[in-house]
Fold this sequence. Notes:
Oligomer: single chain
Largest sheet: 3 strands, antiparallel
Number of helices: 9
Structural class: alpha+beta
Amino acid sequence: MIYTLPPLPYASDALEPRISKETIEYHYGKHLQTYIDNLNNLIAGTPYEEMQIETLIMTTSGPIFNNAAQVWNHVFYFNSLSPVQVSMPLELKDYLIRDFGSVENFKEMFKKAAAGVFGSGWAWLAQDAEGKLVIIQESNAGNPMRNGFKPLLTIDVWEHAYYIDYRNRRAEYIDRCWELINWDKVVKRMHSDLPSAVTDVETVMVTETSRDGLTEAIAEAIIEDEKDMRKYVCVTCGWVYDPVEGDPENGVPPGTPFSELPEDWTCPACGVGKEYFEPEK
Length: 281
């Protein structure tokens, strides 16, 4: 099977001014697409190719897990947002009061958790096996399902989620993102069983087409993506540029191919230019 980018449930400019069209075009259109492409490349021709994405998240590690979880997390995040403000249902308020003391306490705790994720990651509202609601911080591609929790809501706090609009003002991004949450969706997830809660419209679209059945143009595009996502090594000092990680400290978001690095980008370790890098062998 081949995973493909699912359609957004709203227009790319529908979340403005809180999240700009430019952010959506890069975050959804480029970063998420890169994770999908990486996942397809990693599982092609392996037993993982026939597994559902939730199974990949639960049973794999390393690059396959990282890309599968990032695909799942991002689609879940984008489907948690709504261009039309959604009031919090009374049912959810009751659960939040039960488990956090008040809705306001939950709001403060969740925002604090999101702002406090060290480096890149996610803040989650999740439900345990007994139905209790909990707030979970996850680093990098972490997902609460790995520890037996049902995800209900997430906010992406990787820099690429907010840097175009808010630069380093993560707390402001979280405040604005809070105004976009689709609380009806959160309640719906509470009453759904895993994995059905996350495998309908909220996961990546899947086609059963094999690579042998692809058109020549698509096959060439996949080959080109694989080239773009190679790691590059600095021949001067040995520092490795990994497109999956990018170089956030120098303004290069995760998912940026080496070929798309700015012309004035230099090696973070020794300061030489791009011309001193070679594909990792």
